[in-house]
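Hi V.,

Quick status before I head out on leave. The structure for the redesign project is tokenized and pasted below; the design run finished overnight.
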């Protein structure tokens, strides 16, 4: 957002809420604070008070279309808003997303107004037993999500793979197109990785389901020992449930060790799906490939002058090295 818009955020947000809820009186905006969390989109916390009967929360978030790494072709703010709206009243606990707005007269760029729930995303500040308890809750949410009838819930707009046995290849093609579009110079390692992934794409996929894409610490909001919100749905897709299981295991096994295996067994008991280790190994490599793709988009934006935010430079320049190293290790069998 432009500096003059930021300086007037309280007034502009008040005007927008008045537009959306014309029956309310004396709308007051306070405590406008930029969120320091997350690396994809700019967010601002604020409180709203009014006279009259409003049907939204008083503690709110402004989430803008200003994005560090994703482009609208892959993960637009409107797409993300639709995902949250379709998840409402589902087994997945998500904050209410009230409005998507693309009229530039308000803030100069698209934005979403959503509920701000109380809680923390810092699982690393908890004891191991507390983290295990939250991971147990998360695996049950994940199981319910993977069992959900995604067609009935209206998720076909995410793009159904041609068939379940080619959904991994479909995913590789999508993100390799992003890499080719965004790279500023040839990257032989990622070309080799794309070939490796396509040659080893899993062909034993038990079902196509709604996948979040990012599952683990940092993607859940918890309060008083309970998960109250599932976050970070911008990269959701329809595909192999083992893609989420791979991310879940990758993020939590270093913390919980072999205790993670009991959670995966519990997932299988709930869903009736086997834990396919070959698929998980594939998605461990793919996840690094995917991160490289979005980092390349961030680097492109810095190099071409499209964005000058320090956060964008960090995502585009500092983060990719570790993931490229991880890909090289996988390809060499280390």
């Amino acid at each position: 957002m432009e500096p003059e818009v930021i300086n007037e955020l309280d007034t502009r947000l008040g005007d927008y809420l008045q537009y959306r809820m014309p029956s309310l009186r004396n709308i007051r905006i306070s405590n406008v604070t930029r969120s320091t969390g997350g690396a994809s989109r700019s967010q601002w916390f604020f409180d709203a008070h009014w006279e009259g009967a409003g049907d939204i929360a008083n503690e709110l978030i402004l989430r803008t279309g200003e994005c560090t790494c994703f482009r609208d072709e892959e993960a637009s703010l409107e797409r993300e808003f639709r995902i949250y709206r379709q998840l409402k009243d589902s087994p997945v606990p998500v904050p209410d997303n009230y409005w998507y707005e693309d009229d530039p007269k308000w803030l100069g760029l698209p934005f979403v107004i959503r509920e701000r729930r109380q809680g923390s995303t810092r699982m690393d500040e908890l004891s191991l037993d507390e983290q295990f308890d939250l991971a147990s809750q998360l695996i049950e949410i994940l199981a319910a999500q993977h069992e959900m009838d995604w067609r009935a819930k209206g998720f076909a707009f995410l793009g159904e793979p041609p068939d379940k046995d080619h959904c991994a290849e479909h995913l590789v093609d999508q993100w390799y197109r992003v890499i080719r579009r965004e790279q500023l110079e040839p990257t032989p390692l990622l070309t080799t990785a794309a070939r490796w992934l396509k040659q080893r794409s899993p062909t034993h996929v038990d079902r196509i389901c709604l996948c979040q894409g990012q599952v683990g610490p940092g993607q859940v909001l918890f309060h008083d020992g309970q998960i109250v919100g599932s976050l970070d749905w911008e990269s959701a897709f329809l595909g192999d449930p083992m893609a989420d299981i791979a991310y879940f295991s990758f993020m939590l096994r270093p913390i919980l060790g072999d205790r993670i295996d009991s959670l995966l067994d519990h997932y299988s008991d709930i869903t009736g799906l086997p834990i396919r280790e070959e698929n998980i190994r594939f998605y461990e490599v793919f996840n690094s490939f995917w991160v490289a793709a979005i980092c390349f988009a961030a680097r492109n934006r810095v190099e071409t002058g499209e964005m000058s935010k320090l956060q964008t430079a960090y995502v585009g320049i500092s983060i990719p090295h570790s993931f490229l190293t991880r890909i090289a290790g996988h390809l060499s069998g280390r």
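Above is the designed sequence. The radius of gyration is 21 Å.

G. will cover questions while I'm gone.

Best,
W.
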